[in-house]
Specification:
By secondary structure, the chain is an alpha+beta fold. The chain is 30% helix and 7% strand. It has one domain. The protein is built from three helices and two strands.
Length: 54
């Protein structure tokens, strides 16, 4: 059986504002105040310093 693990990533493992900065203006206006609802927003975010170490 596969299990799903949910992780709260915003400003813990990734920099939430860095993802918002990559959105186009139309999307920013459409989702203002609820950017977490933008499809794929977490894939646009940069990792926080020293979180992802190779």
């Amino acid at each position: 059986m596969n299990q799903i693990v949910y992780i709260d990533m915003d400003n813990v493992m990734v920099d939430f504002p860095s993802g918002i900065a990559k959105l186009d203006e139309k999307t920013k206006q459409e989702y203002e105040g609820r950017y977490d609802e933008v499809e794929g927003i977490f894939s646009l975010m940069e990792p926080m310093p020293n979180v992802c170490i190779n």
